Queue: 2 jobs
Job 1
Amino acid sequence: MEHHASILVIEDERAQRDALQEILSGAGYEVETVPDGETGLQRLEEQPFDLALTDLALPGLGGLDVLKFLVRHRPDCVCIILTGYATVKTSVTAMRLGAYDYLSKPVDPQEILLVVGRALEHKRLKQENLQLKKELHKRFGFANIIGTSEAITEIFELIRKVADTDSTVLILGDSGTGKELIARAMHYNSHRRQGPLIPVNCAAIPEELLESELFGHERGAFTHAVRTRIGRFEQASGGTIFLDEIADMSPGLQVKILRVLQDRSFERIGGLKTIRVDIRIIAATNQNLEEMVRQSRFREDLYYRLNVIPIRVPPLRERASDISLLATSFLKEFSRKKKKPLKRLSPEVLDLLLRYPWPGNVRELENLMERLVILTEGETVGVDDLPERFHLRQSASPAASQELPEQGIRLTTAVQEFERSLILKALEKSNWVKSRAAQLLHLNRTTLLEKMKKQNILPPVSLAPLPKKFL
């Protein structure tokens, strides 16, 4: 079996050096040996090794000097110390300085292979963990947020201001607007990014299990509690806990959450020891907590503890200028994932998307784009490719079809949608000749170009590069 990992052996005794090379080479490792610490450091500077196996007592620079160099300059290289003078003091010193393990000579071949194998596996897992955290940071970083509308830009600036603080944040918004995405962006752009992010959907866990899920329990605390369990609050220590749909918590559990918010302490179910945690708390809900407080369905003191920094995420219908960018981004993403040709939306389809109310918000748009990538035969998505609910809105004009709901309507959003629809129709009618489209709309060409830029209207012939923002 070939391992391919590279190992540097630093050993002044020729017989030991040759024996170690034979053992490790026979196991499939790429082995290089040197007789002293100076030569060892020179090779470590010249070439990256996966593991260094060094004697403690060497002429000149000793094994601890090699270890200190590795910790400072080659942290990816795992170090194992060998010595014929094993003492508890030197063992503790080596481990404290960063050695993976400490072995006494003469070394048993089976033992050295076992320890080397474990050390390299530890290195691999550590690298995978760091890579995963880098990917998570990249995925949820601010540089990836899509959206240039005024509503989302304001949220973006607010997130930037509060991300690197420990203040409690309450995210408010309809289902599908991206509340968890915002929570993740805050965590992965804070000083807690190296710690865990523990999400808990309070509505998805049965009430009788949620307390144990959050706080944990001691062995024997209740029937079937056969062992001690650590809860989500303990798991999140050093990082962030995200309590989604917190409005669904029972009144009794709300009291316990209030205590955690106040002093970051609690007891496990059936336990007497008070546990203190270092966590940031982010909560979210799609319900009106102020109304629930008035109806005595949510504790007023808990509401004010949570509502330190409120962030309201607007529904998609209130950020219509972002629909084109989001749709294009999702089309690109699913085309790559599904290994399908890249699709583009016809002007008629984009017009319908802008007029649609999007009750499912961004999640509904994302699901629609996935469906269109899979089911659309040609390169261009036409009106016939859309589900029936979009056809029902096709014949009605934006102004005539707009109903005035009981709670009212955002006039600026409605005007923005209507203006965008007219610009698209003029561009389509003029075959995207902007000067002709401007004449149809009785506008100057420069005014039309400004409005197109403001509305993020892109030519249908190609997919323009996306700005480095997402949601």
Job 2
Amino acid sequence: MNLAECMRRVPDIARFPSVDALHTELDALASAHPHLVRVRRIGTSRLGEPLRVLTIGDGPADAVVIGGPHPNEPVGGLTVGVLAGMLCRDDALRAELGFRWHLIPCVDPDGARLNEGWFDRPGNRRAYSEHFYRPDPAEQVEWTFPLSGEDYWFDRTLPETAALMRLMDEVEPSLVCSLHNGEHHGVFFYVNRDDPELARRLGELPGLAGLPLHHGEPELPGSRLIAPAVYATQDGARVGAMLGAGAGSADYAARFGALHIVPEVPLWADQRVADRSATGTGYRQLVARGAAARREALDMLDTALATVADTLTVRTPFERSVRASLRTFRTVTEHREALAGEDRSATVAEEFDHRQALHLLRLRLLGTFLRMLDAEIAAGSATVAVRTQRRVLGETFDRWVGEAEADTPGPATEIRRPVAVQLGAILLAATRAADGSQNASRIPEGRSMGSSAGSPATSTAATSV
């Protein structure tokens, strides 16, 4: 299999499809290939949407591919569509891979619909922030698998997560791919096996698509590098306790001994995130400065929320998201500072990544906050406090958008590029899962992923909670 050629077959894509458009496309594929494709319902979302899986092929092993595990991350739905079409049209590829594929285009349709306002303007940072929605970690499909232990317990599994669990219980997969994307960062991966060859080859994929590898901060505090920009999957009990949520899909996949990968791709790309040259700024100074800026933003939004909290009458997912995000970003900031370690020179990539972490926090939180206030105004129940905060925070939002756009003035990434990286990662992982990855070792459950403090491999996280 020629991975580069497969990646080049990803077409130009102008926009992200709506939930309805995703299902229409996959229904058309199933109609065109009735002897190859089966579409079935595996569950129901919290708001009554059908959760559907597309099954292709009849190989001896099973692979599960999860699109949209976070609702603001639509790249994976496109990747599922491209992969499904390729498997239907290429008999030789399907036979070579030897899997029965179970493809879920959108596992959180309720949340995805709340992001559709920016899907037709994928490069517009203002539109993205104005229509952004990401739920409380305890309401995220990716992070609500059950956890039980002496110190921490989570059993509030979502219907969508339960549907994934039933599917995995049924097919006992050898491979699980959870498809994620972020904002301004390079490409990076999580893998649940210490497989140096797989990690090396994953690290080559971004270059084939013209995207930079991520050499900024690890997304999750304490992440351990297997190879550049390829991290060992962290134990879900640790991450769940930090986020106030459950385990991840990797933890459930481990029940079946499955290879689990997460390709994280950007919506915007900037070569500074791959620049490992020194800046002359001390790393601990960079971390402290970044933490102070994030706390300033969080304090301002905490104060604004306190001003309007008692007058809100419309209970929305935006309010739950704002409250949870304020709490979670503070927790992550504390972890970030605790892992700063010994001082050294910060890199260009790390400095760039810390600035992006601030832009991410401010625009995600404030964009969602404004949606919360707009819902109150639309209901006709807005108090003077709500209207005042809407005006003041709207001006702040305009300023913060301007600062973010000035810091990263380049064009948005062509959508086909992150799709191609995710496609390449799935196909590469399939070849490793099929051959048993004999030189790899599974990362045991409960293992600490931290290593020596202060090294770039274990520095702090610009996590997107």
